[in-house]
Design a protein that fits this description.
The structure holds 2 protein chains of 2 kinds.
Chain A: E1 3-8, E2 25-28, H1 39-47, E3 54-57, E4 60-64, H2 75-84, E5 91-97, H3 100-109, H4 132-137, H5 143-148, H6 151-158, H7 160-169, E6 187-196, H8 202-220, E7 222-233, E8 242-253, H9 256-268, E9 276-288, H10 307-318, E10 323-328, H11 334-337, E11 338-342, H12 343-346, H13 361-371, E12 386-393, E13 395-397, E14 400-402, E15 408-418, E16 432-440, E17 446-452, H14 457-460, E18 465-471
Antiparallel strand pairs in A: 1-4, 1-5, 2-5, 3-4, 6-9, 7-8, 7-9, 10-11, 12-18, 13-14, 15-16, 16-17, 17-18
Helix pairs in contact in A: 1-8, 6-7, 8-9, 9-10
Chain B: H1 2-13, E1 30-31, H2 36-41, E2 47-48, E3 51-57, H3 64-82, E4 95-99, E5 104-105, H4 107-112, E6 120-123, H5 128-139, E7 144-150, H6 161-174, E8 177-183, E9 195-202, E10 214-221, E11 231-234, H7 238-253, H8 260-267
Parallel strand pairs in B: 3-8, 3-9, 4-6, 4-7, 7-8
Antiparallel strand pairs in B: 1-2, 9-10, 10-11
Helix pairs in contact in B: 5-6
The chains are: A alpha+beta, B alpha/beta.
Amino acid sequence: MHWIALQPLLDALPQARPDDAMGQGLADATVDVAVLTDPVRALGWWALQYTPKVALLTDAVLMEVSGCTRLWGGRASLLRHIYMANKPVARVLYAQGTTSLIAYARLLALCQPPLAPDDLPLHTLLGAQPHLATLARLGCTRWGQLRALPRGGLVRRFGAALIDALDQAYGQRPDIYPWLALPEVFDVRLELPSAVESASALLFGARRLLAQLQVWLRLRQRGVLALALTWQMDARRHTAQTGSLILRTAEPAQDIAHLQRLLAERLHWTTLSAPALWLHLRSLETLPLVSQSASLLLDEQPHGDSLAQLLERLSARLGADKVLRCQLQADHRPEQMQAWLAAVNTSDSIAACTCFKRAGGQKSIKNAVAVGNTIDSPASPLLPTWLLAVPLKLGVRQGQPQYQGPLTLLAGPQRLEAGWWADHAGASPAAALRDYFVVRTRSAVLLWIFRERLGNAAQQAAGAWYLHGVFA
Amino acid sequence: MALRSVSTLTETVGAAVWRADALACASGAVLPSGHAELDAQLPGGGWPVGALCEVLQMQPGQHEWRLLLPALRHLTQVQTASVKLVQPGHLPARQVVLVGAPCMPFAPGLAGQGLDARTLLWVQADSLAERLWAAEQALRCAGVAALLLWLADASSSRVRADHLRRLHLGAQAQAKLLFVMRPMSAQGESSPAVLRLWLGVAADGLVATAPGDALALQILKRRGPPLAQTLLLPARHAALATLLAVSAARRQSTPEPSHALDRTAAAA
């Protein structure tokens, strides 16, 4: 049996070079330890990649490596992997021994070269902690001195627990631990150091949870699609006890910076009804992450963020209805030829959207679904490039429409009679009976105007003129 | 003697020295603007990619599509030709982002002139700060090919030169095509743009050489000698110009009634 004990270092110590094969030392890694919510557990998750037998003992991680030595190409090679590889917490203290308690005691004693088991100080034996003062008065400060005492007398004086701990430490009783497993779903709670009044300040706590999430995601080799952040609020007020927020991304993300930015935007729009005391982060959906192959050519590497990230970030701050993407529709009414849809929901497939409910007739639905928006789209070079969302009613002087002065007719009419199938009661747009004209203003801008065509000839003279588009 | 030494110097250093009476060579990539007369006057023969271009106008939204569409069409067509694995429902990799457009873009009309509707991303942002932020984010994105930013009516808080410089640096870092539409009043302000254009229209009859309306373009700033003359480009694209010519001919052949609009509506 060979045990390694690891302990994350929370305060800064002068950094020692890790030893090659035996003994204690320090090693570095990637994430700032102060950011993680539970560094010991994160380190334990990390250790699972070497051996399935990992246990947490108060503030240290214990790993039993004798079963996996051959897989890693010998003990020296395995130790090199463990000591040199990037760990989830920045600095780690480690020690090893033939039993878990020896490794743990050497971790606490931190003496170079490692002490023999008999020379280990007694305070490093967890089972002896309650009796330390008495044992010290007996002149017993080392493991060896305790072991030399008669067993019967020790059991009568201190109880069986001490002698069991000593036997376990010397390998005369089996080391039995509940082994650590990497959870299927990330679910971590964090007690905030003080009650948080504003939602933006929750971000500091959430950042620690996200850092822990990143460790979990990396080790599971997954990317997160949806997250739920819940906060528990002060119970004294007559308001809701919890609030929550669900964060979704289009691409499975392991990049915490992006999630953090999205969360910051979402929290910015959130108000807390009472001070928050607890935070709780849970992963709702994750996907196996397919990492991209790097290219040897410099030009091949894409620079900057992905498009999905941009859309999410813009939508998070400006609002999803402000970042729009176009869906062409087969219709003759100009206002129905295109639909601007929120880009975040349609980024995967623009064809799968709700707008087909509004597209008139089965045929257009079939066309639009079948071809997306390339074939049979209403695109024409004779259409304007800007469209007014609401047609602007034009003033009329001497029977002629006016817009910044008199208008000159250049082309038209183009008759449009469509949408008669729409129900007039519902929200769907009404039928369009219009004559479109291309006119030129005095400042030489081409406009697209229409005149409403009413039922009979007598009403026709009263038909109003509207500006609908600009040829820019 | 002095002249000879200068000429030998220019021979030895070659293109590394820009002579102020000649157009500069473009430092980065250029994209042909699609207007031959304009390309001849631009350093490198096209729009500079990865630099800020300013377009000054009397009113926003009047002629910029006519000026910019040929280049944007080229950009998107190159992309569809080079990217083979474009699935029908999926987004094209390179987007044209419109930030703070003065009006709703009409995608069928733009698609009719060759700009794929799926490449368009319309970002509505009201305040100046939001527009600048959105533009800066878009410039950082790998999937964006071109950015059109309107700063014309966001005059409540003034656009400063350092705002524009940030955008310029953003475009430079990621090699994006960046156009900023600004009002005519910005002409007197200093700007980090490498190219500033005044865009207007020369009405029919004002210019003897060009019958019909023409797009008038003055290059206010470029890397090269100042250009005194106004460039005239066709104000309408070919299909629309044909339609206008045909309907003009038809109207001339028929007797003119008193109210042209009334007549056409009644006769139709």
